[in-house]
Amino acid sequence: MLSTTNIVLCFAVVLGVSAVPGQLRNIITDSSRLWANGKVPVAFDVSLDGSMKEKVLAAMQEISFSTHANGMPCVQFVPRTQEKDYVVFTSVVYGSGDSLPGRLGGVQYVHLYRDAAKADIMQLIMYLLGFFNEFRRPDRDSQVMVHYENIAPEYRGFFDITNDTTFFNYPFDFESITFFFPYAWAIDPSKPTLTPKYESVSIPYKVSLSKYDILNIQREYKCGIDNGNKIDLLDGTVSYCNFEFDLCEWTQLTDDDFDFQRMKGPSPRSNVTGPMADYSSGTGYYVYAGAQGEHNEDARVISPVLNAGEYCLRFYYFLYGQDIHKFRVNTRVGDRDTVLDSLEGNQGGSWHTYSKDITMNTKFQIFLEAIIGGTDNGDMAFDDVYIFRGRCIA
């Protein structure tokens, strides 16, 4: 899923071209906005380092492979030679504005921030291929609410419906790589800007194209329908819980002082220290350790038993208040506990991402622990816990 820092990357920065109100084209079916034969000439500005080039190349390779149809490539990204229309990836801003998606003619500059993730880059490439964000399709108001009052006026256009586009009658796709996370562009980062309308629906973390992303590309570029080459970098998911119904496979430990609580909506002290809403939807549940009445005590939850191997642990945490003590990530092997990380101090009134590689040579468990400080001003919460096989994806 896209970070607060990187969400700005969701829009291509194109030199000399900006959106004209009321003139959005049906890019999905307008051949003049498509790249001829599905080939996108690309170049790299000297401002990009090797690491970022590697991420861009990986994103392009995954999109190209996943959209293969009937043994042939549907879209390809080729080094630019003499082509008039091409894309330059750069870390320097050229121009500004919410441009139209697809091929616009001439050079198109895509600005990448230093810590851009591969998923962010894939979202940009989808825009270059001709796709608005999924939540801008004409039927979106039946599926999500956009909280414009929490979006600065200059960014509200990023959320506007595009009535002239088509979505080929595919279902509304919360798993699309083009979907913003719920707090994108928020004026007040403790409150969401985008929330699903239906209970228990969440906006998941994703790093690969969804099934419908692939089908849309194949139909747009008329290369046949074939979902047999889909790459899913998260298919090694061992455990995932968004706490909408219960703690899933996580359990409360008995060697602590009090229990975490599943909480929905504003916490009891949200006006001072706690969350206003969960991370994954803005309308669902999260796990909460309130400081009031629990001074200098701790709460713990533990994962199912995991086999020896290499894993990625990912979750979102909320540590807000002037007396935040410690939120710890630990492993347990038998009766031996090891602290992997200790998150300490006031992190502000917003959700943050935790991601860590864990390698163990024996069966083990992970437990999360909130250690409360000496006053009421130190609430803690977490949400959306993922455990994947293999290393974390940058």
Properties at a glance:
single chain, 394 residues, mainly beta, 6-stranded antiparallel beta sheet, 5-stranded antiparallel beta sheet, globular, disordered N terminus
Describe the structure.
- α1 (50-66) crosses α2.
- Strands 7, 9, 10, 12, 15 and 17 form a six-stranded antiparallel beta sheet that branches.
- α1 links the parallel β1 and β2.
- This protein has helices at 50-66, 118-129, 211-220, and strands at 39-44, 76-79, 86-90, 107-111, 144-146, 194-196, 237-241, 251-252, 261-264, 285-289, 298-302, 309-320, 326-333, 336-344, 352-360, 365-371, 379-389.
- With 394 residues, the chain is mostly beta strands.
- Helix content is 10%, strand content 26%.
In short:
By secondary structure, the chain is mainly beta. The protein contains three helices and 17 strands.
Tell the overall outline: globular
Low-confidence stretches: 1-28
Count of alpha and pi helical runs: 3
Strand content: 25-35%
Radius of gyration using CA atoms only: 22 Å
Main pleated-sheet profile: 6 strands, antiparallel
Average per-residue pLDDT, rounded, comes to 88
Helix content: under 10%
- The rounded distance between the terminal residues' Cα atoms is 11 Å
- The run of helices and strands is EHEEEHEEHEEEEEEEEEEE
Architecture blueprint of SSEs:
Elements: E1 39-44, H1 50-66, E2 76-79, E3 86-90, E4 107-111, H2 118-129, E5 144-146, E6 194-196, H3 211-220, E7 237-241, E8 251-252, E9 261-264, E10 285-289, E11 298-302, E12 309-320, E13 326-333, E14 336-344, E15 352-360, E16 365-371, E17 379-389
Parallel strand pairs: 1-2, 1-3, 3-4
Antiparallel strand pairs: 5-6, 7-17, 8-11, 9-10, 10-17, 11-16, 12-15, 12-17, 13-14, 13-16
Helix pairs in contact: 1-2
